[in-house]
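Hey L., structure's done. Input below.
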Amino acid sequence: MDIRQLEFFIAVAREENFTRAAETVYVTQSGLSASIRALERDLGVQLFDRGSYGARLTRSGEIFLPRARRILEDARAVRQELVDDEGNFPRVVRVGSEQCLGDLVDVVDLLAAFRASGPGVDVSYVQAGSEELRAHLSAAELDLAIIARRGASEASEGERPSLLRREPFLLVAPADHALSALAEVSWSEAVASAEFVDFQPAWTVRRILDAATRERGLQRRSAVSVDDVHMLLEMVERGFGVAALPRSLAFKDAAAGLSKIALSDPDIAWEVHVEVAPEADNTARGLQAMLLPDALLRRERHSLASLEVAD
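Output:
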């Protein structure tokens, strides 16, 4: 979750219309709609009733609205305090991120909003694999990076402030594939019964899956390896094989026609973190303040669930 998602949610609640809301926050309607869908999926509730009349808050949406306003105000205050502390001279924030983060962060929109938030702020951006991004951070060549890694166990997660998201993996498969009839499958069963469409070995997703395969003493059949998530999803749709993806990638719009099967292995998980270089100034930390940690999202999800039960 990031503060732009909250801005989008509040705009739709105010306008009761996705088209008008998109105009007020300077984003495309498709981008706003995708962001709201992702927020609803992450919170585990429907925030809006959609219809010919527009968009109206559900009971869950009404409960979440004051909470979203409070979170947004707090995050904006922290960001502005950090940016203002640097003064009004020209500043460049050097940012890096993984090539594909699903619907977790719209990097272009986030950077545009951040650049517009303070005078004299400019952005330098690089897209690379997580190992390369870590090297850039260590060499003080980046101020901030959004990186992916293999997920730790659920119990050891704690309240790590750098953690933006921890996601399980899902299998995506053509609707007529034998695995599509299942709600859940183990990694060993999936590897034994299917060929895979994979990312290239440099991708963190591929590294996680290869490690899980080695640890179980398995041999995985890879039909093809690609370097683009949309091509991967198209090849799955065309029957080249199945793919294992973190949840947010599995729910991209391009995967709408594919079956999603849960992986039952808790150790196969994908974490996305925001890391700031020790030498980075407060401008970079102001950008970090726009990215809200996973612990906050979890608290809101649990709170909404308990309130809905009580209601």
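Residues 156 and 208 are 18 Å apart (CA to CA). Residues 154-158 have pLDDT under 50 and may be disordered.

-- N.
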